[in-house]
Amino acid sequence: MEIFLKVLLIVFSIAVVAVVLLQKGKSAGLSGAISGGAEHLFGKTKARGMDLILQRITAVLGACFMIVAVLVAFYAK
Q1: Sign (positive/negative) of CA torsion 65, 68, 74, 75?
Q2: Which parts of the chain span the membrane according to its record (predicted)?
Q3: Which of 25, 37, 40, 61 is deepest in the core (most CB within 10 A)?
Q4: Torsion angle, alpha carbons of 9, 12, 14, 18, to 10
């Protein structure tokens, strides 16, 4: 069981990295962080299409990664 969870953890980690790298950048460097940061904070820009799908996949994979990491730590004892 422990080996299966460790392999699953590796698969989720690779998947999270791949999905994050597929996403477009959200700001234009430091100038975008200073001037355009409020737009993301207050939700003026909405993600649509592939960006929305990638955001949701990232959230699900991140949650699964954290759950499996906790399970690996629990079974390692």
Answers
A1: negative
A2: 53-76
A3: 61
A4: -170
Q: What is the spatial distance between Cα 13 and Cα 10, in angstroms, rounded to a whole number?
A: 5
Give CA 74 to chain center in angstroms: 23
Query: What are 68's two structure tokens?
Result: 């499996």
pLDDT at res. 25: 79
Residue 45 is classified by DSSP as: S
Please name which of 1, 3, 45 lies closest in space to residue 24, comparing C-alpha atoms: 45
Each residue's pLDDT tens digit, 52-67 = 999 999 999 999 999 9
d(CA 43, CA 72): 36
Q: 28-36: long-range contacts (C-beta < 8 A, 24 or more apart)?
A: none
Backbone φ and ψ for 11, nearest 5 degrees, come out as: -65, -45
Question: Where does residue 68 rank: exposed (0-12), middle (13-18), buried (19+ CB within 10 A)?
Answer: buried
- Name the more confident of 44 and 22: 22
